[in-house]
Amino acid sequence: MNHKKNIIKELVSLGEFLSQFSTEKPSRCPTITNNNIFFDGFIDQLKLASKFNGWFTKENICFALKQWSELLKEKSLLKWLSNYPNSNNQPKTIALIMAGNIPLVGFHDFLACIVSGHNLLIKQSSNDRHLLPFIASYLTHEESLIKSKIKFVDNKIERFDAVIATGSNNTARYFNSYFKNKPSIIRNNRNSIAILNGNESENDLKNLSNDIFRYYGLGCRSVSKIYVPKNYDFNILFKAVYDWHPVINIRKYLNNYDYNKAVYIMSEFDIIENGFLMLKEDRRLSSPIATLFYEYYDDVSELKCKLKAISSEIQCIVANGFSSKEIKFGSTQSPALEDYADGIDTVDFLLKI
């Protein structure tokens, strides 16, 4: 990682550029590098991203860009990269197969490959094709050495040394078979959960609502299930999440709400609902859009054992005083650079191949 200083400089510049788009009305800053070339073009890409994927609302794209603009600061980048030694290894070619469930969901893998000095072959999801190529163009405009390392492909990926692929459980099985002879990180479905004890403050639960509704629950860091003690008062939760009620005005969300509600009623399932969120008792972790699963627990120790047994299916545990691995209410969608998906250190993997 001898090119670390140049990379950090370019990433900081990128973060400053993205910060202009972190609100629904972009704010053009005259001091941002290459704004005359890229500002208007990126606005066009943001519009295209929303047009081709109804889940990529302006609000959610702005939120994603805000998170990345805050992470791409010199202090955060230095802290992150200080965990790794300089490397003189010969660059390898890494195949990146990206998901498309939330805006820029594969950007961290992209960063990891860039800072590791490898070459990239990137195959994007059809659901998220507009943002990353433009961001890569901005990043490489002043840094020709990086530009030569990045290639986006639409067809079959060939001639690569290792792979990082993200998809559903079904595609992960295919990836594991297809890439069995290559060093790989294969990611499948994971979900995030919250453990409530009934003593949460209103602010805790308001923060939890962000973990539930951000990106409409489509991310692996979105809370899709809660564990609650017997006789838990769900009215307290409904009151706390009410600020998110405008979500029902999003047509795709409303369609899913109506469809899933009809299925539950026809199947005679018991549900609790407030007009924009349904609660259903269910042992599964992955809940449909507009639905939050819940499960009762009696004993904290037993719950810990249960969750340990299914830890490979869990991305985040939101709680207060439950375990050493928990994260705070409201923080699931704001991971640090050191918070790797599935707990696998991507940079360490890339430096050792």
TL;DR of this structure?
The protein has 353 residues and is an alpha/beta fold. It has two domains: 4-188, 3-Layer(aba) Sandwich (Aldehyde Dehydrogenase, Chain A, domain 1); 191-318, Aldehyde Dehydrogenase, Chain A, domain 2 (3-Layer(aba) Sandwich), CATH 3.40.309.
The total strand number stands at 11
Question: Beta-strand percentage?
Answer: 15-25%
| Mean pLDDT rating | 95
The number of distinct helices, counting runs of at least 4 residues, comes to: 13
Protein structure class:
alpha/beta
Choose one word for the global shape: globular
**Fraction of residues in helices?**
40-55%
Largest sheet: 6 strands, mixed
Strand order of the largest sheet: 8-9-10-7-6-11
What oligomeric state is this?
Answer: single chain
Low-confidence stretches: none
- Gyration radius over CA: 21 Å
Key descriptive features of the protein:
11 strands; 353 residues; 15% strand; 41% helix; six-stranded mixed β-sheet; single chain; 2 domains; alpha/beta; five-stranded parallel β-sheet
Provide a descriptive summary of the structure in words.
Helix 8 (169-178) links the parallel strand 4 and strand 5 (184-187). The longest helix is centred in the N-terminal third of the chain and has 18 residues, at 35-52. The two termini are 14 Å apart. The mean pLDDT is 95. This protein has a six-stranded mixed beta sheet with strand order 8-9-10-7-6-11, sandwiched between helices. The protein has 353 residues and is of the alpha/beta class. The protein has two domains: 4-188, 3-Layer(aba) Sandwich (Aldehyde Dehydrogenase, Chain A, domain 1), CATH 3.40.605.10; 191-318, 3-Layer(aba) Sandwich (Aldehyde Dehydrogenase, Chain A, domain 2), CATH 3.40.309. Helix content is 41%, strand content 15%. Helix 5 runs parallel beside helix 13. The chain is built from 13 helices and eleven strands. The protein has helices at residues 4-19, 35-52, 58-71, 74-81, 107-116, 131-141, 144-147, 169-178, 202-213, 234-240, 251-266, 300-309, 346-352, and strands spanning 93-97, 119-123, 150-152, 162-166, 184-187, 191-195, 223-229, 271-273, 278-281, 291-297, 314-318.
